[in-house]
Write a structure and sequence with these properties.
This protein has 333 residues and is of the alpha/beta class. The protein is built from 15 helices and 12 strands. Helices cover 45% and strands 16% of the residues. The chain has an 8-stranded mixed sheet with strand order 5-2-1-6-7-8-11-12. Strands 4-3-10-9 form a 4-stranded mixed sheet. Helix 9 packs across helix 10 and helix 9 packs across helix 11.
Length: 333
C-alpha cells in the first residue's frame, strides 16, 4: 500500500520519516521549499528516539494513486490540500490528524465519508526547518470514525500505524476529540508570548491563566451536556479534579506537568504556525469553546479573548510581553 502524507510540517515529517524507516512505500507531499530540502537531504529527526536521517520520496502534488492518505495540514488548509491532490485520492482512505472537530466535516465536502477515518495524535513534534523536526515526546495514535463503527479497513490502517506509534481504536472518537481540545487549549498562551511551554508555564500566574482556560471550558461542556471521553494517559478525571481545585493549587500542579513534558523546548502547533508566518488553528481549538458557548447562548470571555490575542499576534507579528498579556486577561483569570 502506498502511503501519501500530505503536509511536511512537524507531524507530517515525523510520521513520514518513521513509516519509511519501517520500509513502507511513503510519499511526502509539501510546499516547494520543503520538497526541495527533503529531496536534497532527506528528513532529519532528532529527539526522544535519537537522531536519524531518512531518505524519502517527496513531491509538490499527489499525482499517483495512494491506498492511504494521511492529512497532516492545518484545518484551514484542508480544502486546498484536497483540491490540489485530487488525482491521487480516487481509491484512497483518508486519515485526518487535525485538532478540533471540523476536519472530517470539511473533508466530507470533497471525499466519500465512508472512506474518511479520523485520529488524535498524542505524540509531540516541533518543526525546525524544512525537512527538519524534533520528536519531543511519545504518545499513542487514536483512530476511529465519526460516522459508523470501526471496520476491517480501519483495523488495517491502525495495524500499519501501530508499527511507529501505539495505535488505539475507539468507538467514541468525538468524545475524545472534545477532551483533546482541552489538552491543546493552553498552547495559545506560549504562542501569544512567543516562548516555549516550559518557559511560559514556569510562571505561576501564567499557569493560573491556563487553569482558568480549562475551568471556563469545563463550565461550558457541563452546561451544554457535551460528553468527554478519556484519552490514553489523560483521563477525564484528571481534568475534573484539577479544575475543581483552588486556582493557586491547581496552577502549581499544572506548572509541574507542563515544565516536565519534554527535555527539548516544546513549542505548540499555534506558535509553530505563527513563526512560519502562517495562520494558526486557534479558531478550531479555543475557538471550539467559543463556538460551543455561542451556539448554546452562553459566554466564553477568556477563550474569546485568547483567540483575539492570537489573531493580534498573527496580524501584527509582535508577541506580547508578560505584562501586556496579564493586562489583556485582567478580570478574566
Amino acid at each position: 500500500m502506498r502511503i501519501a502524507v500530505i503536509g511536511a510540517g512537524a507531524i507530517g515529517c515525523l510520521v513520514a520519516g518513521y513509516l519509511k524507516l519501517k520500509n513502507e512505500d511513503v510519499l511526502l507531499i509539501g510546499h516547494p521549499e520543503s520538497v526541495k530540502a527533503v529531496r536534497e537531504k532527506g528528513i532529519s529527526i532528532s529527539g526522544v528516539r535519537g537522531t536519524v536521517s531518512v531518505r524519502i520520496d517527496a513531491a509538490e502534488r499527489l499525482d499517483v494513486d495512494a491506498g492511504l492518505v494521511i492529512l497532516a495540514v492545518k484545518t484551514q488548509d484542508i480544502q486546498a490540500a484536497l483540491k490540489e491532490n485530487v488525482n491521487g485520492l480516487h481509491n484512497a482512505f483518508l486519515l485526518t490528524t487535525q485538532n478540533g472537530l471540523q476536519a472530517e466535516h470539511i473533508a466530507a465536502g470533497y471525499f466519500d465519508r465512508e472512506r474518511i477515518f479520523t485520529s488524535i495524535v498524542m505524540f509531540g513534534a516541533t518543526y525546525l526547518a524544512p525537512g527538519t523536526v524534533v520528536h519531543n515526546f511519545e504518545g499513542s495514535w487514536i483512530i476511529g470514525r465519526l460516522s459508523g463503527k470501526p471496520d476491517e479497513n480501519l483495523l488495517a490502517v491502525a495495524n500499519t500505524l501501530n508499527t511507529i506509534f501505539p495505535s488505539v481504536i475507539t468507538e467514541d472518537i468525538k468524545g475524545m476529540k472534545y477532551l483533546k481540545v482541552f489538552v491543546n487549549a493552553n498552547n495559545c498562551i506560549p504562542a501569544i508570548l512567543g516562548v516555549s511551554m516550559q518557559e511560559a508555564f514556569a510562571d505561576p500566574f501564567i499557569s493560573r491563566a491556563a487553569v482558568a482556560v480549562w475551568k471556563e471550558g469545563m463550565d461550558i461542556v457541563s452546561r451544554t451536556g457535551t460528553h468527554l471521553e478519556g484519552l490514553p494517559d489523560f483521563p477525564v478525571l484528571r481534568l475534573t479534579r484539577l479544575t475543581s481545585l483552588p486556582a493557586e493549587e491547581a496552577a502549581k500542579i499544572f506548572s509541574g506537568i507542563m515544565t516536565s513534558l519534554s527535555r527539548e523546548p516544546l513549542y505548540g502547533s499555534i506558535l509553530q504556525s505563527i513563526r512560519r508566518g502562517r495562520p494558526s488553528e486557534i479558531d478550531y481549538i479555543n475557538g471550539a469553546f467559543v463556538a460551543l458557548a455561542k451556539n448554546n447562548n452562553l459566554d466564553a470571555p477568556l477563550n474569546e479573548r485568547l483567540v483575539d490575542l492570537v489573531h493580534q499576534v498573527e496580524r501584527e507579528k509582535k508577541f506580547l510581553t508578560r505584562g501586556e498579556f496579564l493586562s489583556a486577561v485582567k478580570g478574566l483569570v
